UniProtKB/TrEMBL annotation:
Bilayer-spanning residue ranges: 29-52, 59-80, 124-147, 168-187
GO biological processes: respiratory electron transport chain
Natural source organism: Acidithiobacillus marinus
Keywords: Membrane, Transmembrane, Transmembrane helix
Taxonomic lineage from the root: Bacteria, Pseudomonadati, Pseudomonadota, Acidithiobacillia, Acidithiobacillales
GO CC field: membrane
Record protein name field: Cytochrome b561 bacterial/Ni-hydrogenase domain-containing protein
Amino acid sequence: MADIIPISVSLSSNAVRESSADFPVYAKILHLGLVLSVTFELWNSLAALWFADFTWFPLHVLAGLILTGWLVLTWLTYLLTPWGRHLLATWFSWRTPRAVAHDISGLLRGKLPSHGVQPGLSSLWQAIFFIGVSVVTFGGFIGWLVLRGNLHLPGGAQLGLTLMRLGTPLLAYFWIGHVFMAFYHALRGDALWRIFAVWKRG
């Protein structure tokens, strides 16, 4: 296991009571909601895009609206809570390039990269995936509003459709990698599944 690279983060006057490695209950609930909604939207979109299978497509718009609202709530939580700001700080830390290089170097030597709320390859992957999901989802929402006539934005509908067509396959690769590494960590005995234990903190 790669060494943990500490970071210094200035949060606010309110101290973070839980360890930065812990996941507060609200973070677990947000994560579970993202897992379910993103997975449904992603594979439903791929079924329509690649296989012309529209079995579940009537629910696509409803699920997309739910995901849009969930992402807004998640971004607000990340920006307005000490734990969320700490998470963002690990994603965009000046230490990230060095930490990623450290993890890749260890991976090439057969050492599994570090995971959790700290700079590194895992956090970079999560950041790119989350931002990508946000861009594609918000773009699709804007396109939907334009098509409904609720928003006048020249090219808005085409922008939304393009983001979804191009972004969905890319996000699928990130999803596959994310899930694969999660299971691999779990098989090695790392306590990853605690993030789904919404009934307790930690």
